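Hi V.,

Quick status before I head out on leave. The structure for the redesign project is tokenized and pasted below; the design run finished overnight.
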């Protein structure tokens, strides 16, 4: 649900997608930039995906109720996986962060507001490829 709005926001940002490789998602989606939005923290990109990609995963959620307005606080991780030879990976992570932090996300069934993203933290995955992870929090209410 909201992960698609995050993905759409990144796909619409030319600065973010300029150097990302394409991936054939098949079916209706066809070929798009390698930005994967998963329903679960356990899902991984397909084996034929390049090492450079962005992965969006849900982390947690909690409900809130304020003056009769019922909604939720949603938490996502946005991870940039990069090739070891990429020179400007830190800059790409920064561009992702700038694109999402305090941004406006749209969704047909929800009002989304209060989008905050922590700055990217450098790390590495199990195969020693560099990655940058950002934690995104947003508040949602049903329309």
């Amino acid at each position: 649900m909201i992960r698609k709005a995050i993905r759409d926001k990144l796909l619409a940002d030319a600065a973010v997608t300029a150097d990302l490789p394409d991936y054939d998602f098949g079916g209706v989606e066809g070929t798009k930039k390698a930005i994967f939005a998963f329903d679960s923290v356990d899902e991984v990109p397909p084996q034929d995906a390049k090492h450079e990609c962005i992965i969006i995963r849900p982390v947690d959620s909690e409900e809130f109720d304020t003056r009769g307005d019922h909604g939720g606080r949603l938490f996502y991780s946005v991870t940039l996986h990069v090739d070891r030879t990429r020179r400007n990976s830190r800059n790409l992570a920064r561009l992702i962060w700038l694109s999402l932090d305090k941004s406006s996300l749209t969704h047909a069934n929800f009002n989304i507001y209060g989008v905050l993203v922590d700055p990217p933290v450098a790390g590495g995955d199990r195969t020693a490829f560099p990655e940058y992870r950002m934690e995104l929090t947003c508040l949602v209410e049903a329309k």
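Above is the designed sequence. Strands lie at 22-24, 31-33, 35-37, 53-66, 69-81, 110-117, 121-124, 130-142.

G. will cover questions while I'm gone.

Best,
W.
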